[in-house]
Amino acid sequence: MASMAHGLECRAPFLDPQLVEFALSIPPQLKLRNNVSKYILRKAMETDLPADIAWREKQGFGAPIARWLGSDLKPLVSDVLGEGARVHGVLDKTAVNQLVRESRKQATGRDWRSPFRIWAILMLELWMRNYAT
Prior knowledge:
This protein is mainly alpha-helical. It is 52% helix and 3% strand.
């Protein structure tokens, strides 16, 4: 999901022209069977992969945002979302500061929403600094 959100194709083996031509020639009923997508690919990989891998549901790729914010990006958050932050003109300054303070206390990241909220605010601030007039 992270790569596709930026138009980046990370599945290079599936871009081989001969493989694409072959995939286009496969009947639809072999691609989707009993609501299982990529049926023929899963069936083909059954011998090379454990069944729980070959037949598992699609999983997203999550970036380790909580870890980044708690380590490498921690000083950046403090600097960027400090007193001179432009987001304070559009977001409640007290709420932003409280969210940042609370995130520092939660080293374990018990509240999974906080890191994503801080990340969104951080990205908004950086965007505003670069593009908002």
